[in-house]
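Q: what sequence does this backbone want?
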């Protein structure tokens, strides 16, 4: 949902449900969404800078069975996940495959209190074209105040993740 240019009201105008929903409800919903970027924290093996068509990004270049790690803290006023995607910059035209695992806990809980995983996810990729991979299924039960470790594992020759786009609502 995107911000809509505010309406110029006319004196005596009848406000319908559609107008009110567009200019009040939808605008408040946009304001009630937070977007965060979480860069790759580390990976198994070396941590390279990768150049994709002249643009330099910090990417974890993952061979098959290697993992990139992301660490995040869920805000105390978190309500629900709206979008959770990993941005990758593919090195070839292919179908990429990955596994995703999440471990999370609240203060006072065991660090292995909660785990989620999705295996053998796939997407079609084009060389050097940024691709957002939906990983929200590995975050279905996170709650406000949780500490989260997320592991993104390649099942393909090479996957190059840059970070997570995390959009959430209050």
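A:
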């Amino acid at each position: 949902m995107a911000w809509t240019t505010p309406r110029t009201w006319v004196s005596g105008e009848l406000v319908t449900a559609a107008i009110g929903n567009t200019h009040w409800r939808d605008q408040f919903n946009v304001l009630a969404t937070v977007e965060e970027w979480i860069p790759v924290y580390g990976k198994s093996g070396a941590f390279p800078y990768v150049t994709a068509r002249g643009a330099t990004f910090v990417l974890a270049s993952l061979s098959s069975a290697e993992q990139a790690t992301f660490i995040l803290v869920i805000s105390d006023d978190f309500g629900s996940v709206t979008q959770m995607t990993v941005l990758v910059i593919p090195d070839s035209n292919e179908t990429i495959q990955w596994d995703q695992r999440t471990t999370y806990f609240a203060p006072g809980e065991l660090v292995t209190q909660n785990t989620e995983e999705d295996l053998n996810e796939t997407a079609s990729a084009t060389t050097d074209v940024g691709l957002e991979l939906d990983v929200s299924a590995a975050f279905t039960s996170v709650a406000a105040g949780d500490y989260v470790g997320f592991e993104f594992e390649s099942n393909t020759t090479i996957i190059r993740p840059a970070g997570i786009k995390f959009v959430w609502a209050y």
